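Pilot study result, target chain (294 residues):
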Amino acid sequence: MPEPSPQAILDALLERCHEIRTPCGDGHLMWRVWGGADPQCPTLVLLHGGFGAWNHWVRTIPELEPHFRVIAPDLPGCGDSADPPQPYDAASLSALLSDGLDLVIPDDATYDLVSFSFGGVLSGLIARAQARRIRALILVGTPILGLARTGPANALVRVPPELSPPEAAPLYRGNLEKLMVRDPAAVDDLAMTLHMANMAKTRLRSRSIARAFVSAESLQNLPCGLSCIFGENDVTLHPDLATVRAYVEKTHPGAAVHIIPDAGHWVQYEVPEVFNATLLGVLAAADITAQKAD
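Predicted structure:
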């Protein structure tokens, strides 16, 4: 039997979800929900990275949906979500997401938050707003001390909007290879399909926010547990992985920091088996901690 096409993989995931819309500016935020047939299923929220959409988790959602109610929004100004009101910053974007969570997860039900890259930049602020019910925050590839200002993460090529998809594809591929992965071979047809679709829809300009110190400041005195997962070769981290790890461990004593070897920034896509096993272990540990606290 032939392998399903990239679009068929994405379509199959979309067919299994249901959609919820919450207010955002003049339109709505799009939230997609998988799993949760058992009312006792724990709830897990996934936030994607900048210039992305829910599909940043395409290789994670299938592993999670048998065990969790999985909720993945498109961030404001990304994917199928409306633009945020101008001017926007980390605080206003986080408030839109927190307000949306109050509608999507009603009755103060608890949940864990797993946030990738720019989604993680916003997540400390979200956790503070959701202090009454958030159990654990897991950051994935988040540039906690600000997005790196030098190196491959800053060598991306602008893709002129007038280019046809075949003309634009090599430029997009080069950008993915520089920024997102350690092994260029990880940029396969599925990665290209979802990335080009995301870039065609993205209006949010997140880099200036990601370069600031907002994530580092918002992680101080968190109201929930904290864990981090990084690819060993993540080029987005400033000034380096060791310094980011030391900051996390100093700011949040007891936080678990997991480093996955032979992986870059988009660790959940590049090495999904290792990442998914790591994430499930982190979530299990958070559940045990929460049960002890109760």
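One observation from the pilot: DSSP finds eleven helices and eight strands in the chain. A full batch analysis is planned for the follow-on phase.
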